What we know:
8 helices, eight-stranded parallel β-barrel, about 35% helix, globular, single chain
Amino acid sequence: MKRIGHKGADHVAPGNTLASFEAALEHGMDMIEFDVLRLRDGRLVLAHDPSDAASREPLTLDEGLDIFAGEAYDGVELDVDMKIPGYEREVVSGLRERGLTGRTIVSTMYRDSLRLVGELDVEVKRGWSYPNVRRDYTRSVLAPAALVLLQILKARLPERAARMVRDGECEALMSHFRLVTPRLVRAVNEAGGELYVWTVDDGDQIRRLEALGVAGVISNDPRLFAPA
């Protein structure tokens, strides 16, 4: 199972920063996930949302990719999480220019973006992030309705994800941990895809997912993983 650092190592150092990426590297992560967002001024930066970008001077996409193309990160895989559509060409071009396409997954919640990335470069793996939500509604006043919807999504996801992999829409599913079941793992594996799980900050849950046979777990805290 691949150990994946969310935004680098967000519980060790502020996410999507050089310090966070270095912390992920220090703790032996197999893959580093980071966010890419376009700001109103047109810049592509490493940030989760506009408020995150406004809280600091974010790295640009070019600066971030230059870091990952450096010798220190040789062998570390990347998960480029595109927050919104519209800059697929810049992302793929930046990866290609630095020779990073072969060790990168571009993940997004938007299927049109997945299709465009596949047209731009067949070497880049694509991960469909699901569900398309910005917060965990099971921890809000909407929890009762959210839990009912969760059960419906959980029942439908295995067939839907497997079909997308078989149809060539993506090579991986990036699933919220609440939707992961043995049936989902089997469906994605049998279709020839990979299942990555986000975002898991509990050691016992990480071990449970590893026992299920998922391809990788994304966590804010690299210290929760067992040593390689």
